[in-house]
């Protein structure tokens, strides 16, 4: 009697397992096949591609972009990444003056960093390392909480307005996805 | 009477190998789960991205190299002992290869896990394809070298048993279990030549600082000399199970003895010369050799197709014995309530799917489309990650009672396990394949490029990420079920004289129909070496002709 009962419940279990364990996979694969064929044959490829939003519009700043582009001294981001060693997680930023003939120092500072975790990090405890003077090139690193990534920088720069007058100009720099790179030498 | 009562010494050796294999499986599987959640950005609290390579190396080495090798050793000890009807010839020798492999494995693991210790100088985040420029602590390479030497001794142990058996049975054919073991090991001897040369000749001196410059192409080529054959070293033991045991589990018997032998011979011949197909993107190998590798790779599909035919035919025979009828209706008569059967059968189905993506990898021109994308892990989780791993797990449900003399516990959980693995792997691998087609790279914790959005052919990136994460989670659950059933049965299963039906019937078309030449090991081994020389001698010579340690050599052949 109880043998029969357990036999029946096993049968039921096997039924469920076959439906979920084999049926769902078969369905997933069939849907994939259908979609692949559908896209290849029935959808114009241009349509398929233009469904995504325009990448340029939402892109944040990254390496190679310029800051203060409407000001007198334009600055290029030549390094922007997370540097990781076994236990440290640092944000590295390198800036160069876009005017390669200029002898001026880069008067620029990172006021604060807004992080993915919604934390704000003050930028002022940092001092730039001057990498070269003509064109001016500086480099700085900030220790971040493990795994956190900056999403926006608040940067200000002293811009010449007249012969001897300067004015502090600030810019919000929303960042693109920051590349994370492993530092083997540290 | 079951195995442990007849051969208590061999049972102990096999069990020791299984313990190591399952510990590696547990740790490696956990790493896989963590990776799946981390790289999809679903949960990143376990570690930071800088430690990803350490985890990925642990996952690859512990699962693909350690779990497989130790499980295979245990399986072969069981098969050789049983089919030749003799305990290991000398237990001191047998235990010494086991301990040598274990010491090596522990060294390699310590080197890898050192990467998680702050300020540790011991690290080995070089991935399981360990060639320069990534460099590991010498302990990693030395440990792996010990594992390989141990595995050579294990093979020698089985040949030793065979020779003794042969002396007593001069006119008998090699029993099929022993045949498959010996041919797998012959292939292993051929392909590990490349690995030994790479590790002992180049990597150990380099990691110790004895040489500072190394030509990058040479160790890569030597690694891939080994690197494709190793996948058949994992796979052939799964075939061994499908040929020798699965027909019995489905209620029938093996379809053909000679087909089985032919398949193993083809693998011995062709596994190594195809290694270049992992180097399609390497500038230093001439396109002619790549083409040769592509042709032989497609040829090597043949034995897998023969296997498909033979195994399915054996299963159909089994189902008809159980009352199955019709063209396809017999499938319903298979024992879908037996965990060991279900695991092997589902593993076989997944292998067929892996074969399809494998054909794409193998085709030199299409390979460019998916090279180094997450498509590739999608492919090999079907092959080694399921065809091999799920077969090993499933057959454990049948072997463990024989090795421990205890019945399996929690049969319901054991039954859920293979279905769960199949579901989880379909989800994870399907999404990995699709993401790979969109260009998502493999081997990175941060799979985005800056200023660039992936454009999937269909679906969305977010949906694929979730599919990978959910698939990985189901796999982890399946793995926990497996480990739970094994530990519980091993420690507390009901003791019994006959804990499982371990009888293996004779093949339908038996050894009497098998040509004797198929058992000529010297002939096939010699041919295998010849094919390897044809494929590799010239390019390797070109690479070393201007000095082994001189980087920046000209493209080959120049
Ligand atoms: C719990 C089940 C598993 C999960 C969730 C899992 C997950 C993953 C993921 C997400 C990756 C890709 C990482 C990347 O390229 O960034 C990976 C790589 C890999 N997995 Fe698994 N895996 C599992 C089981 C297995 C099994 C059973 C095997 C082999 C027996 C295996 C062998 C490998 C190998 C060889 C790699 C490549 C490592 C490398 O690129 O160096 N995995 N796994
Ligand atoms: Cu291969």
UniProtKB/TrEMBL annotation, chain A:
UniProt feature, compositional bias: Basic and acidic residues: 160-179
Q: Which domain of life is it from?
A: Bacteria
UniProtKB keywords: Membrane, Transmembrane, Transmembrane helix
Q: Where are the stretches annotated Disordered? A: 154-186
Q: Where are the transmembrane segments?
A: 12-37
Q: What is this protein called?
A: Uncharacterized protein
TrEMBL record, chain B:
* UniProt signal peptide: none
* Transmembrane feature ranges: 16-38, 58-81, 93-118, 138-162, 174-204, 224-246, 258-276, 291-315, 336-360, 380-400, 412-432, 468-492, 523-541
| Keywords for this protein | Electron transport, Membrane, Respiratory chain, Transmembrane, Transmembrane helix, Transport
Named from the GO MF annotations, one term is:
heme binding
Please name the CDD domains in this protein's record: ba3-like_Oxidase_I
Gene Ontology BP annotations? aerobic respiration
GO cellular component terms, A-Z? membrane
Tell me yes or no: is Nucleotide-binding among this UniProt entry's keywords. no
> Which InterPro entries does the entry link to?
Ba3-like_Oxidase_I (IPR033943), Cyt_c_oxase-like_su1_dom (IPR023616), Cyt_c_oxase-like_su1_sf (IPR036927), Cyt_C_Oxase_1 (IPR000883)
Listed SUPFAM superfamilies:
Cytochrome c oxidase subunit I-like
Task: Give a yes or no for keyword Electron transport in this entry.
Answer: yes
Cytochrome oxidase subunit I profile domain segment(s): 18-518
Which Pfam family is one of this chain's hits?
A: COX1
Specify the protein name.
Cytochrome C oxidase subunit I
- UniProt source species: Fodinibius salipaludis
Q: What is the lineage of its organism?
A: Bacteria, Pseudomonadati, Balneolota, Balneolia, Balneolales
């Amino acid at each position: 009697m109880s043998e029969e009962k357990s036999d029946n419940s096993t049968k039921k279990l096997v039924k469920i397992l076959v439906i979920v364990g084999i049926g769902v996979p078969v369905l997933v694969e069939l849907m994939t096949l259908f979609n692949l064929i559908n896209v290849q044959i029935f959808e114009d490829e241009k349509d398929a591609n233009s469904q995504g939003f325009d990448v340029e519009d939402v892109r944040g700043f990254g390496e190679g972009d310029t800051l203060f582009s409407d000001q007198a001294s334009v600055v290029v981001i030549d390094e922007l990444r997370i540097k990781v060693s076994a236990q440290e997680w640092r944000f590295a930023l390198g800036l160069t003056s876009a005017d390669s003939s200029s002898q001026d120092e880069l008067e620029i500072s990172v006021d604060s960093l807004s992080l993915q975790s919604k934390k704000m990090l003050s930028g002022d405890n940092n001092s730039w390392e001057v990498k070269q003077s003509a064109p001016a090139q500086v480099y700085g690193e900030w220790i971040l909480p493990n795994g956190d990534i900056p999403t926006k920088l608040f940067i200000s720069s002293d811009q010449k307005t007249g012969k001897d007058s300067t004015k502090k100009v600030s810019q919000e720099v929303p960042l693109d996805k920051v590349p994370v790179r492993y530092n083997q030498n540290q | 009477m079951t195995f442990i009562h007849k051969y208590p010494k061999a049972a102990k050796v096999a069990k020791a190998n299984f313990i190591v294999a399952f510990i590696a499986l547990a740790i490696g599987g956990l790493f896989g789960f963590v990776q799946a959640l981390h790289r999809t950005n679903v949960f990143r609290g376990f570690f930071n991205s800088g430690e990803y390579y350490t985890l990925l190396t642990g996952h690859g080495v512990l699962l693909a190299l350690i779990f497989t090798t130790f499980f295979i050793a245990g399986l072969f000890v069981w098969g050789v002992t049983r089919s030749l009807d003799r305990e290991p010839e000398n237990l001191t020798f047998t235990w010494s290869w086991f301990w040598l492999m274990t010491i090596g494995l522990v060294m390699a693991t310590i080197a890898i896990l050192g990467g998680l210790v702050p300020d540790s100088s011991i690290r080995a985040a070089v991935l399981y394809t360990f060639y320069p420029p990534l460099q590991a602590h010498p302990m990693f390479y030395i440990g792996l070298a010990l594992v390989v030497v141990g595995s050579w001794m294990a093979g020698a142990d089985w040949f030793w048993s065979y020779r003794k058996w042969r002396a007593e049975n001069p006119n008998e054919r090699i029993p099929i279990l022993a045949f498959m073991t010996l041919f797998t090991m012959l292939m292993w001897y051929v392909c590990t030549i490349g690995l030994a040369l790479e590790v002992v000749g180049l990597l150990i001196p380099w990691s110790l600082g004895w040489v500072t410059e190394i030509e990058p192409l040479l160790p890569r080529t030597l690694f891939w000399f080994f690197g494709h054959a190793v996948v058949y070293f994992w796979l052939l033991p799964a075939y061994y199970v499908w040929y020798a045991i699965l027909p019995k589990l489905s209620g029938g018997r093996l379809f053909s003895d000679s087909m089985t032998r032919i398949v193993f011979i083809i693998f011995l011949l062709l596994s190594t010369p195809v290694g270049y197909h992992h180097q399609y993107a390497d500038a230093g190998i001439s396109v002619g050799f790549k083409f040769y590798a592509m042709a032989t790779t497609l040829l090597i599909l043949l034995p897998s197709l023969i296997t498909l035919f033979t195994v399915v035919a054996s299963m159909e025979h089994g189902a008809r014995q159980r009352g199955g009828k019709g063209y396809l209706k017999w499938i319903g008569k298979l024992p879908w309530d037996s965990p060991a059967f279900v695991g092997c059968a589902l593993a076989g189905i997944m292998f067929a799917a892996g074969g399809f993506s494998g054909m794409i990898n193998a085709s030199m021109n299409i390979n460019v489309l998916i090279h180094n994308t997450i498509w590739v892990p999608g492919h090999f989780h079907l092959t080694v990650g399921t065809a091999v791993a799920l077969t090993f797990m499933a057959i454990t449900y049948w072997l463990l009672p024989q090795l421990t003399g205890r019945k399996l516990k929690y049969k319901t959980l054991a039954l859920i396990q293979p279905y769960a693995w199949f579901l989880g792997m379909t989800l994870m691998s399907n999404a990995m394949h699709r993401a790979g087609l969109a260009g998502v790279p493999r081997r990175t914790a941060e799979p985005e490029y800056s200023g660039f959005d992936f454009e999937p052919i269909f679906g969305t990136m977010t949906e694929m990420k979730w599919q990978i994460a959910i698939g990985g989670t189901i796999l982890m659950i399946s793995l926990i079920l497996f480990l739970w059933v094994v530990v519980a049965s091993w420690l507390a299963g009901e003791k019994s004289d006959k804990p499982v039906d371990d009888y293996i019937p004779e093949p339908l078309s038996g050894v009497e129909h098998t040509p004797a030449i198929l058992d000529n090991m010297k002939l096939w081994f010699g041919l295998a070496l010849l094919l390897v020389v044809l494929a590799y001698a010239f390019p390797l010579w070109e690479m070393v002709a201007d000095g082994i340690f001189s980087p920046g050599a000209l493209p080959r052949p120049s």
